[in-house]
# Entry
Amino acid sequence: MDSTPERIGDWRGVDVATFRDAIVPKNEPAVLRGVVLHWPAIQQGSRSPQAMCTYLMSLRQGGPVPLLTADPATQGRFFFRDDMRGFNFQRRPAPLAVALRMLLTHLDDTEPPGLFVESAALPDCLPDFAASHRLELLEDSIVPRIWIGNAVRVQTHYDLWNNIACVLAGRRRFTLFPPEQLPNLYPGPMDITPAGVPISMVPLDNPDFERYPRFREALAAARVAELEPGDALYIPYGWWHHVQSLRSFNVLVNYWWADTNP
# Structure
């Protein structure tokens, strides 16, 4: 990136009323500092990746999770193949414990394979997790999802819902673009996508401005935030976002919902 993006604003001590009445109506992203710092999993994750994995495996296990794996040459960037005939990663169902052991096995590798548990519904894979990890800002009927991986990059995309993403372990950098930047983000094909929604074809870390000249305009409108364990990010519907995991072990729980008011 050839410019310094604007920082997303921080909010502290956010309660339901503040979120509903002061944050949501702005239709702007917001960093919710420390909003889930009290969660038991975060206390375990602060000790070590091994402690976090031990904690997650001590909970009642449910069904398999979607596990994405990629060759070390991808450097954790899950994307299309060069010929655009498929993706540079494989997706398969696996028990959560298997995925966690794989992550620990490659924890200290200098060039690890890309490993990513993608959007696993917590009631399905860890049925008891939600009872002790409530996000008080939202209704309990909104299903939480867990994402676990090493230093991976999720290409710029948008969601079909509002989103709150909570960091439990590791550190994540979010780069957001307002909805009106869609023409400058060069969305890829609609009929074949890595995760069900179109993604930007422009690599954020090394954009080719000759091929994608309007991406400079998108960068000028970009917002950025870095989140520590306990922090969360509110992403309104339609905001494009790129997510980079900055540690060799990262855990995130997110909530999607469609209503304007939570």
Summary: The first strand starts at residue 6 and ends at 7. The two ends are 34 Å apart (CA to CA). Helices lie at 16-23, 40-45, 49-58, 96-105, 122-125, 215-220.
